[in-house]
Amino acid sequence: MSTLAAPGGGIAGAKPGWRTALGWDGTTLLVLPAVLFVFAFFIFPCIYGLALSFMPTKGGAFDNYIRFFTEERFYSTIWKTLLIALPATTANVFLALPIAFALRKSSKFQRVVTAVLVVPITLGTVLVAQGLLGYLGPNGWFIRILHMLHLVDGPIRLTHNYIGVLLSLIITGFPFSFLLTLSYVTGIDPMLAKAAATLGASPWTQFKQIYLPLLAPGLAMGFCLAFVQSFAVFPSAVLLGEPAGATRVMALAVYQLAYEDYNAPMAAAGAMVMGVVQLIVVACILGFRSLFYRGPVGGTKG
Asked: Which of 8, 58, 162, 195 stands 20 to 30 A from 267 (CA)?
């Protein structure tokens, strides 16, 4: 004896199940774990941190923010972090673009070079810092070679300062910018440039009129991801920089407030300011992207 199936998978004449009553289907159940994860580990901590920032140990609700923007040791970390993150991100994007163009044709050479270029991802920040200390430190190979070749006479300092942190961020952030840019470059149909060339377009015109508009979403997203990663710099600022000077970044200041001063509400206020600064920069980049491309935020490949 056969049964009739009702729309939505139920049996005709049977009482609707709890999923049908709630309007849920199989897709909803697949998405639910991800939604719960995002809420538990992103949305709830953000809401909790925001509420905590308005509960200072003494004073009014806005005292933590007033203190952050009136004490030089706190508000100066904004500029110090931007002065590190923006140049590192810009360098990564501009280095990734020509290399991705050179490797846009699939070949064994491209795969080998790509694998080599993404090696820093596997090393981690601490190991990269250790390598830079051994290579660029006061007694490192690079410094000794410069002295042996008599290219420099006096002491030269490339670590435990701004330069050391900047180089570390470029090394660790480059693979992400390169892989994202390469994925967009390889998605552009090469016949577009060839068709433009037949009409007399120079290589620069081809890049400006064809490649750049199509690459704008990828470059913007790559810049945003690399910037967020660089802006949250912490281990490199301690191991390769001057934690009490030029590289006292926002993440370090927030860490000191939370685990050295044991002032969680003030640390939460610093973290909120840090998040707002990142959002402002990301919004500016996405707005600049719209000058070249109007479409989905994530852009389209090719």
From this structure: 162
